[in-house]
Amino acid sequence: MSGASKLVLGTVQFGCSYGINSAGRPDSGEVARILDLAFGSGITTLDTSSAYGDAEQVVGAAGASRFRVVSKYPAGGGDVAEACRASLRRLDSGRLHGYLLHHFDLWRANPRIWDSFRRLRDSGLTGRIGFSLYSPDELEMLLDAGIDFDLLQFPRNLLDRSFDPFLPELRQRGVEIHVRSTFLQGLFFMDRDKLPQNLQALRPALEQIDAVAFEKGLSVPELALSFNVLNPLIDGVLVGVDNCSQLQADIEDSEADCWFDFDIDVSRRELLNPVNWK
């Protein structure tokens, strides 16, 4: 299996500006070229949401139906089945590969919403159902409650391996696992001398990444992508791009063949969640 075939193309940047390094939204022509390049390179899965501006409409017009598409139920989404059908209409697709609850708090406030997701899967409108998570505590609550999800998305990168203890159990349960924040929303690419003051506490960890990459003879993007792509317990690795050249670089970097296992110390782990960067 090629590294590219494990990549999942994120679409949030097609509907709104996103991340530290975002150059703004690509136009519809560039989105179509990005999807063509992705499909031709062996990328089979898109990740989107009705909460990502008009991303669903944009990728729908660019041929999203060629791909396995994962979308998400947003806060205030109303009836779950109708929200899913609305996503399918925007995507110009007949069926989703997966439909995720975008915000864990929606389930915690109303556990019965999961019944609607199960009916959605039973109806065939989506192949898999699950959650987009932010912390292992959320996953523990779902496991303790016996929730029968079969698709999860959560952050994992060189500095954040907090979900790793659960990976073997999730694989045993047949759960498809997608990981995001491989580049920590572009932080790994920032000039270390230009880090904003609120992120200075991460500089020692970022410099450790630089040192490991140098030792392995890899670029930082190659190191970061291979860390997730080469993990056999991970099924999909989200990447977000603004143009074809960025996607081509990710495709090439995903082919780095260097398996490694190491821990990098992070003094302020709350900064691994970009929500806390403000």
Question: What do these coordinates show?
Answer:
It is a single chain. This protein has 278 residues and is an alpha/beta fold. It has one domain: Alpha-Beta Barrel (TIM Barrel). Strands 1-2-3-4-5-6-7-8 form an eight-stranded parallel beta barrel, surrounded by four helices. The longest helix is centred in the last third of the chain and has 14 residues. The radius of gyration is 18 Å and the shape is globular. The model has no long low-confidence stretch (mean pLDDT 94).
Layout of SSEs?
Blueprint lengths: L6 E4 L1 H4 L12 H13 L4 E3 L7 H7 L6 E6 L6 H12 L4 E6 L2 H6 L3 H11 L2 E7 L3 H9 L6 E5 L11 H6 L3 E5 L22 H14 L3 H10 L6 E4 L4 H10 L25
Parallel strand pairs: 1-2, 1-8, 2-3, 3-4, 4-5, 5-6, 6-7, 7-8
As for the number of domains, it is: 1
Bin the strand percentage: 5-15%
Number of strands: 8
- Helical content (DSSP H or I, runs of 4+): 25-40%
* Chain-averaged pLDDT: 94
CATH C-level label: Alpha Beta
**Helix count, per DSSP?**
11
